[in-house]
Amino acid sequence: MVKITGIEIYPLQADFKKPFSFSGITRLSSNNVILTITADQGACGWGEACPVPGMSGETAASICAVLKDYFAPLLIGQDPLDIAVLTRRVENSVNGNICAKSGVNIALYDLVGKLLCVPVYTLLGGKHRDEIEVNGSIGIGTAAEMLAACEEQMAECGVRYLKLYCGKESVAQDVRKLKEVIGGIGGQAQVFLDVNQQWSPKEAIKAIRSLEEEGLLFVEQPTPKWDLEGMRQVCQAVTTPIAADEAVFAVTDITRLAMAQACDMIAVYAMKPGGISGGHEAAILAQAAGMDCFIGSYLELGVATAAGIHLAATIPDLKYPCYMYGPMKYSQDVLQQPLQVHRGKVAVPEGPGLGIDVDMERLLAMRL
Ligand SMILES: [Mg+2]
């Protein structure tokens, strides 16, 4: 039997190339936590937790504490091949702490893939595609600033899908600005919105109806996550598909959303709901409930982005782009071969586990 021998924790600071604003938050840098789970045959699995305190309530300090004090004692001495059993024990040991739990789950998958010499997507049943269509994202700014960012991302990475953040101004101002930006894109990319819960149901219905002729691909979390009845009202009042993002932190949230008919689509992350295991379950459950899903992100570095790419590769009917854009937003990454978006797509990494190698020198240079 293989045994887990240790966990190493690397809290770090990763700077964004440019400040990035959405709803009430501006991100200048991200205090991600990279971790390794080592086994007694010398193998080591990499994981990453990417806290956005305004979203999951976690910080780098809370993630390090829960990894060291709660998860490491549970995992050391156990067989890493028992991924589901260990993930359940980790899940039950502490409430919440979703990114810390996801980091452990990602590291376990990487470790087991390496021990068995297969990619993570093989552990999930195989890949349906070799490349994933990626969307860029445009933080809140003036119409001119947003349009310049659209042009930059289309030129740099060839993205054919762009997510526009909005919801900070009045509905009338937002609609006017978004029409100007979408008009400026001129059909070079398909557009969708992320409102991060900033509209009331009535505002959402008014705004989305005013924008429907612009051909929005979908609208992500227009209204508050707790108001399933409000989400249902918006869903029924517009033809544009509505995606749930902040409303999904656990796989069971998808059941509640489906029963309430509160959305058409689900955003699944490698960071929620529960890493690669939870993300895989979420994708299956969403599709069984008649909803589409796509892989979203908190803009992670290469380790967790690779996990999201493996997840995306295993979704049978993936109709929408995935937000695997994190590595393009940071001024540095921890991978030896950074993930790149070319012509709007990122290749599914090959090789055992996540198919990535971490550059220790870079990691230590970014360590806090
Ligand atoms: Mg979102």
Task: Give an overview in words.
The protein has 368 residues and is α/β, with parallel strands linked by helices. The chain folds into two domains: 4-122 and 360-366, Enolase-like, domain 1 (2-Layer Sandwich), CATH 3.30.390; 125-347, TIM Barrel (Alpha-Beta Barrel). Helix content is 41%, strand content 18%. It has 14 helices and 14 strands. It has a seven-stranded parallel beta sheet. Helix 3 (83-93) packs antiparallel against helix 4 (98-116). The model has no long low-confidence stretch (mean pLDDT 96). Magnesium ion binds next to loops. Residues 194, 196, 220-221, 245, 296 line the site of magnesium ion (MG).
Largest sheet: 7 strands, parallel
Number of domains: 2
Instruction: Give the ordered list of helices and strands.
Output: EEEEEHHHHHEEHEHEHEHEHEHEHHEH
Radius of gyration from CA coordinates: 20 Å
Termini separation: 35 Å
Shape: globular
Q: Helix tally? A: 14
Look at the structure and give the CATH class of the largest domain.
Alpha Beta
Q: What's the CATH architecture of the largest domain?
A: Alpha-Beta Barrel
Helicity level, as a percent range? 40-55%
Query: Which hetero ligands occur in this complex?
Result: magnesium ion
Write out the strand line-up for the largest beta sheet, numbering strands in chain order. Answer: 7-8-9-10-11-12-13
Number of strands: 14
CATH fold-level label of the largest domain? TIM Barrel
Average of the residue pLDDT scores: 96
**Poorly predicted regions:** none
Please state the structural category: alpha/beta
